[in-house]
Sequence to fold (858 residues):
Amino acid sequence: MAPIPASEKAPLGNVLVIGGCGFLGHHLVDLILESYKASVSVLDLYTTRNRRPDSDGVSYYNGDITDLSSILPVFEKTKPDVVIHTASPTAVDGAKALFKKVNVDGTKVVIEACQKSGVKALVYTSSASIISDSVNDLINADERWPVIPASAQSEYYSLTKAEAEAFVLAANRSPTCPKLLTCAIRPSGIFGPGDVQQTPGFLNAYYNGQTGFQLGSNDNLFDFTYVTNIAHAHLLAARALIYTSTLSHPLQDLEKVDGEAFLITNDSPVYFWDFARAIWKAAGNERGTEHVWVIGQSLGMGVATLLKWISWVTRKPARLTPLQVKYSCMTRYLDIGKAKKRLGYAPLVSLQDGIELAVKWAIDEKAGEGEKKSQ
Amino acid sequence: MGLLGNIAYFSIHPNQLRSILQWKLWHDPVHQRDPAKESDNLKECFKYLDLTSRSFSAVIQELNPELLVPVALFYLCLRALDTIEDDMTIPLEKKEPLLRNFQDVLTKDGWTFDGNGPNEKDRELCVHFDVVITELKTVKPAYFAIIKDITNKMGNGMADYANNAEHNIEGVKTIKDYELYCHYVAGLVGDGLTRLFVESGLANPALLKRPELSEAMGQFLQKTNIIRDVREDFDDKRSFYPKEIWSKHVDKFADLFDPKNLPAALACSSDMVLNALGHAEECLFYMAGIKDQSVFNFVAIPQSMAIATLELVFQNPNIFQKNVKITKGDACELMMQSSQNLRTVCEIFKRYIRRIHKKNTPKDPNFLQISIACGKVERFIESIYPTQDPKALALIHKGESSVKDSKTAAEEAEAKKDVFYLMFAVMGTLLVISALMIGTAWLAGARFDIAFNELRKGKFFPSQTPDGDAAQNIVNSQGHGEL
Fold:
């Protein structure tokens, strides 16, 4: 992307990015600096990693969102017009209690802080997983699809994201604080530089020589989304909320952004294993699919269940989990028409470019680790 | 293929025979041309229609009577134009004015043309073109105006193309040129036909407001033919693959036909397929605008053939060596399934899209792009005929699912349990048997520790010769002893 001249950058006022040193958060900070006129502050539990150089003028504050007294002073000091709340433990590494504490309780504290300090717009990073029960397919699903209730949601992470999203959307024009406008972004299959789940997961399979296995028929389309595109959607939403806050009347239902949730993808669903193969190819794999063994979903489930027992006995992590089997056999793609129409969203980075950037980063990172170890 | 050949072929491919028989036995056209009610002159026209195109002739003759004659004549006019354009024996200075003024010929009584080379396969049509002119007078003025307008545009487009010396020497240069050529020879046909359909009230007038849709119909057919005919065109010293695409894969166009460049040639043809696939969604969208069944069949059959051909040529090395064609059985099956409704045509598209996806390989430079293009077509079909209903899903979660649903859910749960117990039993049995065997071996004095050590040294097989001899000696000695 060519740099945007300062005169053409859209104004965003004072922006506070919560979780701004995290995976998505630091890409958000990058994109704001690149494309918007704004004064950026970051609030995170630790602010040592993913920091911009001091010359960029981003102010970093340590704070714990589960404690109002820890973050309210930051709000009072930075006086944000826009708050973007991306903080969350990653879906795989948290314990139940941590998910609940950060995602639900933490989000409630953030809402309270916004209400107490006159914030105009709050954009919350939700997740497309809140409409998936991890068992059934999502076929061209849009925002009309129901959020999965606790009784049917097997992933606790998704449940806490859903609960938090509900609180955020309920805070839109709430009677106690009608000035605060809110909305939620629900990304699907986030990947990119800094990603600790998808890209490294697929790359490990390549480095372990597992490219010869395919679970399921590979007719299942899946949405993967490059991180910068998700950041872009957040900022479009923030702009729309700020614009809405200047209007004397709320927007019509079909144009409304405040109080709404938006699914975000790269708008390019691909067959699940094709994405994996594109990653392997970007990492240097030159093989086709002649050597691939196709393992049916039920056999895959059987093997994964067996490995689960073995790993329980040997106390070593299993190479294949039932959840991985389910995901690699599941159809899961979304219709993002709502975000296109109401936010004017279109991906900035294509899937191909995204994969190349993500793989390059992951390889550099690995090389860096190797050097550190050898030193 | 002789009779014996046919018998041999169909005995190995009974499905092909089945499709052909089904089409012959059960195909019931919505309308059928009735030659008994036609003038001799019109019969002549249909004779040339049969001569110039077997596949189009059949679908045209099943068209709604309102459009039967206008579409047949429209086809003949464009075919005559094409025959002149195609003929490399006609010098350019003669060809150009012929092409540019062809729309005036349509009102010139008795006009014929015998300047085509003797090998031009449709030369007869030009020699007897006066029958077409006579018949055009009987066509409603509104239809005639459309035919004349498109003839004019196509003739001028072809003249521009023929006039461009570069095309004759180097072939088509850019993708833009390639698409412009497809526009002249096919996109315009789509435009003309759409205007005829709408004029006759057999298609939704909204189609006229979306000209890109009829354009896509023509582009998709033409591009598919160009990809398929690459060898034939090359032998005729022409090429329509744009340089912008082939030069990414080979240095000279002729290199595509050298078997030692096969990987590059396949990459080039998939690049072409990717380009053509981009029209598939708009083609399906267009077909949603057709109201009349016979018109629907008329537009849908060639499209289904095109997606099947695209699948056939994709990753197919044969296209660079010979003519490839979908089999007659497949063609009959496609005709059968596409002469129903948009849903069945969507199913055909989905079926062939999945086959293209299955043949797609990471070795292809456009691997991911092709995967995305296939996904887009699937998603578009899903948007017209959704599989999931959000309202029904919401009801399930509210616990208001119908008795039937909960019953099937219970059955599924039961089945899952069964599978689990079955797996458990199988694994359990295996474990017990293994334990028994290993245990017995251990009791009998098997030295697993030695075996393990050997394996860890990387010795997976006992060294054959000396040990083998030793064993043989033991067997021999013991044998003798016991005897």
